[in-house]
Amino acid sequence: MSARIEGTNQDKESYGRSRFHIECEMKERRRGTRIRAYKGARIIFNNGRSTIDCVVVDQSRSGARLRVASSRDIPDAFDLLLVGEDIIRPCRVVWRTVHALGIAFQDKAVVKR
């Protein structure tokens, strides 16, 4: 265990490093490497009656990270439509924050016709 710096909430090992740098050093748990994507997409749920626009920030073969205006009303399972590619992927939420979702792809992609 590292010694704490007096009067702060940091230990000596992490002092001066940003949260980003500390998180990058954490063990990677993903199965595949993520590639930056920045693609437009739509979250589809409620039997196709509800959609929410989002951005695919990065993507791997097994999942992706999405940026959303709010993750509050997004269900734990939905379809993801990649705009311009007309590909729909069934997904489940692995983690969520207020403005982001980590998702896992459930089945093979379906081409929208």
Detailed description of the structure:
This protein is mainly beta and 113 residues long. It has a single domain (31-111), classed as Thrombin, subunit H, CATH 2.40.10.220. The chain has 1 helix and 7 strands, in the order αβββββββ. It has a 6-stranded antiparallel barrel. The longest helix is centred in the N-terminal third of the chain and has 6 residues, at 19-24. It is globular, with a radius of gyration of 18 Å. The model is unreliable at 18-27 (pLDDT under 50).
Structure keywords:
mainly beta; Thrombin, subunit H; six-stranded antiparallel β-barrel; 113 residues; 7 strands
Question: What topology emerges from the helices and strands here?
Answer:
Layout: H1 19-24, E1 35-45, E2 50-59, E3 63-67, E4 77-82, E5 87-96, E6 100-105, E7 110-111
Antiparallel strand pairs: 1-2, 1-4, 2-3, 3-6, 4-5, 5-6, 5-7
